[in-house]
TrEMBL record:
The gene is Dmoj\GI23140. This is Carbonic anhydrase. It catalyses: hydrogencarbonate + H(+) = CO2 + H2O. It comes from Drosophila mojavensis (Fruit fly). SUPFAM superfamilies: Carbonic anhydrase. Keywords: Lyase, Metal-binding, Signal, Zinc.
Amino acid sequence: MHFLAIIACSFLALSAASEWGYPDLDKNQDEPFPKWGGLCDTGRKQSPINLHVKGALKGEFSPLKFENYDEHQGALQMVNNGHSIQLSGFAHELTLSGGGLGSDFVVEQIHMHWWSEHTINDIRFPLEVHIVHRNKIYPNMSMAANFKDGITVIGVLYHVSNTPNEAIGSIIKSLDKVKKYDQMNVPTLVADSLAVDDLVPSVDTYFTYAGSLTTPTCAEAVTWIVLTDTHPVTLDQVNQFKEIEYKEDKQLHNNYRELQSENNRAVVLVQQLQERNSAGRMSGLSLGLMLLLGVAVQQSQL
Ligand SMILES: *[C@@H]1O[C@H](CO)[C@@H](O)[C@H](O)[C@H]1NC(C)=O
Ligand SMILES: [Zn+2]
């Protein structure tokens, strides 16, 4: 009997390791966040974290440079991988450089989390889009994940609005083809064309810090760039993503990882150095910062 129990236990442990997931908050609001194992449990530079203006160092970097992000992508692939909705298959290389980055990074895939993984001044947002980039000096993502300069992720937060977001809307239009469990891991073509630019608001101000992937293996290879400017999305739109299935008749209602310890890491709030340009652009930037600081002041008064 004991022998059988041991076999059963090791089998369970094994299947748990390969089938990681998120707590089922429908069943139990207080369900503890599952242990994912390895670095996810033992790492000291894990993501996501709460980003707060008061705790951040002030930084100034040269502008981030985006190549081909404005190109309309006519043949994007979409997949429900059981953990998120993921887009890939970009027509040309989308290259990110500049800022504090030491080399060129190319877009590998884009996926989303509902609700947001990062919080800003303790505020959670309804949606966070991750644009995952690989350092070009590494041949693929599995290699890049072994190095601390291997991956850069741009995190874009979306705020609740009553105006539907057009770019998110064009992704949602093709969701029906991948929602069901039997369509999981079957890629489909995104019917509408969209440019990656459409998913990115202003990049003039952002938080940056050294962290990890927010899914197993939780590799500590990520330079995070979380933009402070946000895009609108309606709750109806976010609810469409919550209908995708990860098991037979089981919908993925939440796919955000719990907040991780900052562990004395430097979080830098970057204001891009502006090339001399119109005053209108500068005042837009300071307005964004003031709004952010306003939130911090409100919270300290609570
Ligand atoms: C990634 O690149 C390395 C080195 O070229 C190679 O050995 C490995 O098989 C590649 N992995 C994948 C998943 O393509
Ligand atoms: Zn992500």
